[in-house]
Amino acid sequence: xxxxxxxxxxxxxxxxxxxxxxxxxxxxxxxxxxxxxxxxxxxxxxxxxxxxxxxxxxxxxxxxxxxxxxxxxxxxxxxxxxxxxxxxxxxxxxxxxxxxxxxxxxxxxxxxxxxxxxxxxxxxxxxxxxxxxx
Amino acid sequence: xxxxxxxxxxxxxxxxxxxxxxxxxxxxxxxxxxxxxxxxxxxxxxxxxxxxxxxxxxxxxxxxxxxxxxxx
Lengths: 134, 72
Description:
The complex is a heterodimer of chains A (about 130) and B (about 70). Chain A is an all-alpha fold and about 130 residues long. Helix content of chain A is about 75%, strand content about 0%. Residues about 1-10 of chain A have low confidence and may be disordered. Chain B is mainly α and about 70 residues long. Chains A and B meet through helix 1, helix 2, helix 3 and helix 4 of A and helix 1, helix 2 and helix 3 of B.
């Protein structure tokens, strides 16, 4: 298959995500501290979730007024996943700040992984919802 | 892997800017030992400023009925 610009961009995005996963989750892969890895994961997931929701918003507007209109139940599902992600991300940052200020315990090692799962949920629910309304 | 493909497909819709932002974040913190408190504060602000869900899906004129946003 001839590589297209779209395929190349897809490969780049996949590579970036795989690198981020390896960098954050595989111990010994880098000298990055758990704190910096958690920070990078939270910020990257924010970019990812925001991009996914913008794309979803464009899609919802494009099918508005047609028979493929997104049902309220689907909106509520995505809203819930987004809300869970947002709360967890804020809690993770608060916890890291409290630890730095000496007023809280060290944040859990798998905070970044948990947030990635929540961000992935938002994206997966959107993808499934988009497919079911197409 | 399936999720990674779905994620990449969605990133594709706003493509390069999102991918560039993620790449910049990764390269900036690679090898870092400490994140200053100011940067945590700035990240907290960015997260707190994330729009409400309905702001993403609603058209400027409002295509989602208010009742739908606040179901009883």
